[in-house]
Amino acid sequence: MSSGTGHPQSIGKYQIEAVLGRGAMGVVYKAYDPTIERHVALKTVRPDLLDGRDGDQLRARFKREAMAAGRCMHPNIVAVFDFSDQGDTPFIAMEYVKGKELSQFIRQGVMFERSVALFIIAQVLSALEFAHGRGVVHRDVKPNNIIVLKGGKIKVTDFGIARLEVTGLTQVGSVMGTPSYMSPEQFRGETADHRSDIFSTGVVLFELLTGKKPFPGDTATAIMYRVLHEPPLSFADVGAEAPVALDAVVRKALEREPEDRYQSADEFARVLRSALTDPKAEGRISQSDEEVLVSTLGSGPALQGAVLTSLEADLLRRAEADLAHYIGPIAKVLVKKAAAQTTSITELYKALAEHIPADDDREAFLKRAKRLEGGSTRTMSTRDTAGRTISTAVGRTDASGTSFQADVLDSLTGELTVHLGPIARVLVKKSARSAGTLDDLVGTLADHIQDDGERRSFLDRVTARLPGEA
């Protein structure tokens, strides 16, 4: 039944509230799930498309999208909650995110600062590494499928033409994708593996940094010819200033043959960081960009420009790292501002939590403040509005930090990898530098696992493997 606003009142158990977008295949609605009281984005297929000769193939593609995204529970991937291909209106119920497609910024002529572009691409690569590790190749990485949330966090969406390596739902040799971002092997009708996503990500990175595409063309045929027969444009070709090292990194991602590109999204991320933080590299990027890149890719300590030894700096650095996990590099500015207006770690975290849009993320962030309060009592000096110094008791370990045995960290990395993929190694390394006790470290790592059941499973296994410690 229609609501009188041009859309149905409900689809399945979902109450339809508004239209979020329309496409050639169907409509995406904002809907409400009364069972668990949350909003979702409900992606549907036009019923008339299911009646034609290709109806079965379209249903299979829709199911493939649900299966692909359903395997990939990751902070930078839009989650799938439900799927139905029965009845007149097949649908996928997805995570409802308030954001803006990256393509909208590009169409508006927004020129991204290098640090912002790198922050976006680092998250895309993290999402792809996770998906690839679960046998899912996106095959249509492009700005339209990258949603930018408040604070710069991104979500990769639309696994509609993804290939599942263990199923036969995708026709081998089918040419699918968006011409400007398609890899050579897609144009040739060959099977596209995870390295095709790396090529597409390289195209997006070049476009973010220059406002141009590396293989320009007015038609799909013209673009295809360039991709198959001509080298990509360089930064110099389009009049963009960029370090030589960065140009080399992007060009490798855009190599014509898959075996000549980076062989994984993780390798792409590591080489990107390494090339741009090498002090001997020609055209090294700025210190501020370097901080963002290193922090985002999670390798090496945050670059502060000086050695920070005071307890105050240690606590604020911890708060900055905790907040950056949810909203990105702007956390540094917000922590500095909030620290001047609060007198305890609890107040600081409450003030910072207001900048985190998702309720679940906000609660997880506030739990970190409670853990800080649970350790040995130390003093954090702040200033009140009159400029007087106030000492506040907070939970903290010795300023020298706690050293964990290598086998303990290896064990935690192995357990966390089951849930988060290769990024687990980075998270364990970063968290171990600031954790006061093993309990603190395990709790911090568990916060990165979004699914409650998986989080409990992680904690149970860690407790069993590290008796008497965790």
Q: What would you say this structure looks like, in words?
A:
By secondary structure, this protein is of the alpha+beta class. It folds into 4 domains: 10-95, Phosphorylase Kinase, domain 1 (2-Layer Sandwich); 99-296, Transferase(Phosphotransferase), domain 1 (Orthogonal Bundle), CATH 1.10.510; 311-395, no CATH class; 406-465, no CATH class. Helix content is 44%, strand content 13%. The chain is built from 17 helices and 13 strands. The longest helix has 19 residues, at 114-132. It is globular. The model is unreliable at 164-175, 279-311 and 374-401 (pLDDT under 50).
List keywords for this structure.
globular; about 475 residues; alpha+beta; Phosphorylase Kinase, domain 1; 4 domains; Transferase(Phosphotransferase), domain 1
Summarize the SSE layout with pairings.
Blueprint: E1 10-11, E2 14-22, E3 27-33, E4 38-44, H1 55-70, E5 80-84, E6 91-95, E7 99-101, H2 102-107, H3 114-132, E8 136-137, E9 146-149, E10 154-156, E11 163-164, H4 184-187, H5 194-210, H6 220-229, H7 244-253, H8 265-277, H9 287-297, H10 311-327, H11 331-339, H12 345-353, H13 359-373, E12 377-383, E13 389-395, H14 406-420, H15 423-434, H16 438-446, H17 452-465
Antiparallel strand pairs: 1-2, 2-3, 3-4, 4-6, 5-6, 7-9, 8-11, 9-10, 12-13
Helix pairs in contact: 3-5, 3-8, 3-9, 7-8, 8-9, 10-11, 12-13, 14-15, 14-17
